[in-house]
Amino acid sequence: MSETIKIVITGGPGGGKTTAIDLFRREFISEVSVVPESATTIFSSGISRGKNALEIKCIQQSIYQLQKSMEHLISVQNPGNALICDRGTLDGLAYWPNSEKSFFETINSSFDQEINNYNAVIFFQTAACSGGDITSNNPYRLENNDEAIELDNKLQDIWRKHPNFYLIKSNESFANKVADGVNTIKSVLKGFRD
Fold this sequence. Notes:
It is built from 8 helices and 5 strands. The protein is α/β, with parallel strands linked by helices. A 5-stranded parallel sheet has the order 2-3-1-4-5, with helices on both faces. The two termini are 16 Å apart.
């Protein structure tokens, strides 16, 4: 595990992670620093999501490198703060068009190195899993409900291997789900600080 407390907030599209992170940041502004979602940073710069395996691999490698750089930079600029990471370095594996082995060879790392970089993972299950709508004003979210569920399952399969994995299940009340997520973040952070 790293010296800086790093908590990944991840999940399928439309899971509520961005809302929970925003609320948590406002409440604990002096204790945590948020690492923004690298994919959104890249796609908002005008880069498209990629149409073939080579493009997708290049994009995922860039997302990985940006994620690592931002985690390092934000921890250096905010010593003593816990990092709340809007997704983590292993998220790219769910989008990778080739084998898991190929992913780790490309990023010059291993599953163990990446998963051990984080102290905990809080997973927000997509609302699509409980029949909810994942429509969003995020122009970079292109998945329909079926694709969101498939992606959610892939991401869960990757991240649930972490010893401190917390699942925030989808339910009918988005407000309750986000509140559960924020309370889980608080509890996890408190556990590492005590």
